[in-house]
Amino acid sequence: MSDISALPEQAILVHVNFSQQHTSEDLAELKLLVSSAGVNSIDVVSTNRSAPDAKFFVGSGKAQDIADLVEQHQASVVIFNHALSPAQTRNLERLCLTRVIDRTTLILDIFAQRARTFEGKLQVELAQLKHLASRLVRGWDSLDRQKGGIGLRGPGETQLETDRRLLRERVKALQLRLNKLERQREQGRRARQRSAVPVVSVVGYTNAGKSTLFNRVTHADVYAADQLFATLDPTLRKLKLKGVGEIVLADTVGFIRHLPHDLVAAFKSTLQETREADLQLHVVDVADPRKDDNMQQVAAVLQEIEADQIPRLVVYNKIDLLEQQPRIEYNEFNQPVAVYLSAVTGAGIELLTQAIAQLLSERYIDITLALPPDKGAWRARFHQQHCIMQEQFDTDGYCQLTLRLSESVWQRCVKQSQGALENYVVSAAVI
């Protein structure tokens, strides 16, 4: 695996504005990514195009300008704020005589630097290998065919084929180990579900202050810094709230525009904490002028990982930078929808815990089920969750259960039964 941090930290940045692309990558965000990777940007090339060039992405003239800047500054790497094809990368490297990487490779490298736990390192390596698989050919241009001649003919693998086989085997081994870790994580989730402990997941754009808020609320020591993707590995902490009892707060990886799909797939088990949560805290940097766009990007990623239907409380962080006062915003049903606070100073933290407690305590429903005799497994599961208020059997063996449980837990049960439980509902009422 390649590592940008091993190279001299001198980079030329390239950003292209496309007339038909209204949500183009932000150049300021690219500079933050480069800085987070430990690389110095010494010059920036920006240009306008209607569509990417098939050979150089930026066109032959602009590509030559980039090559001239590389020679002038003795740059060691050229970083594009876009996704490049393997052919475009190879053509640019031949022209510039230096290494060329795209936005995806840059993000993967930052993740490789930040991963601390065993699972996190495996996830990053898997994402890097999947990304490398389509770019393996560029490193073996002279070895992609077997040579002919006396003593050289015959069966055997080319070097490229050997590397591809080794890469596939490594990917398979990593996937097996991650599947084992995912099963272990799933056991922990099931234990929390059986004990009916609500899970609150902290989500948001990278560098919005999620880990700082997590530390402030739980008194944890999760690493937090003013940089993109400061923390990757999920952290769970128990917290007691008045009127609710014990809950689990989960800190997760931050999102970003055009998050690589290989990375989303690799972190599937990590993001499962977000999908299975009872409540999401969407942390927003209120002082960021791009906060609205960032919120849309987070919503898009949540939809991609099928976590967009979970109740959400927006947390506007960093109000100290705007000299605002902490407060709670309510909807027409007098339910909290947003909290304004500062994780650094601690202003508004009590309002946040108050809003969380109100949302978790309000979302309970009473449901009466008539379970057939062959659905005893669901009766046992409800007993494990301690949510059965009353039960009785009729002469036909049907079990009539009266349940009191949170709406999110009920929806999770319905999803696990593939909708079958809804067929046995006699009555339901929101408390």
Which CATH top level class of the largest domain fits?
Alpha Beta
Regions with little confidence, pLDDT below 50 for 5+ residues: 138-154
Largest sheet: 7 strands, mixed
Order of helices and strands: EHEHEHEHHHEHEEHHEHEEEHEHEEHE
Strand order in space, largest sheet = 6-7-5-8-9-11-10
Helix content percent band: 25-40%
Mean pLDDT: 80
State the end-to-end distance. 55 Å
- Oligomeric assembly: single chain
Radius of gyration: 26 Å
CATH architecture of the largest domain: 3-Layer(aba) Sandwich
Whole-number total of structural domains: 3
Enter the CATH topology name of the largest domain. Rossmann fold
CATH superfamily of the largest domain: P-loop containing nucleotide triphosphate hydrolases
What share of the residues does DSSP label as strand, in percent? 15-25%
**Strand element count:** 15
Subcellular location: Cytoplasm
Main location: cytoplasm
Organism: Rheinheimera lutimaris
Function: GTPase that associates with the 50S ribosomal subunit and may have a role during protein synthesis or ribosome biogenesis.
Describe the structure.
GTP binds at residues 204-211, 229-233, 251-254, 317-320. It is found in: Cytoplasm. Its cofactor is Mg(2+). It comes from Rheinheimera lutimaris. Residues 157-191 form a coiled coil. β10 and β11 (336-340) form a beta hairpin. Helix content is 39%, strand content 22%. With 431 residues, it is α/β, with parallel strands linked by helices. The N and C termini lie far apart (55 Å). Strands 6-7-5-8-9-11-10 form a seven-stranded mixed sheet, sandwiched between helices. The longest helix has 36 residues, at 159-194. The protein has helices at 27-36, 60-73, 86-96, 103-114, 118-133, 159-194, 210-218, 261-266, 268-275, 291-304, 349-362, 376-384, 407-416, and strands at 11-18, 41-49, 77-80, 99-101, 199-204, 235-241, 245-251, 279-285, 312-317, 327-330, 336-340, 364-371, 388-393, 399-406, 425-430. The protein contains 13 helices and 15 strands. It folds into three domains: 6-101, GTPase HflX, N-terminal domain (Rossmann fold), CATH 3.40.50.11060; 195-362, Rossmann fold (3-Layer(aba) Sandwich), CATH 3.40.50; 364-430, Alpha-Beta Plaits (2-Layer Sandwich), CATH 3.30.70. α1 runs parallel beside α4 (103-114) and α5 (118-133) runs antiparallel to α6 (159-194).
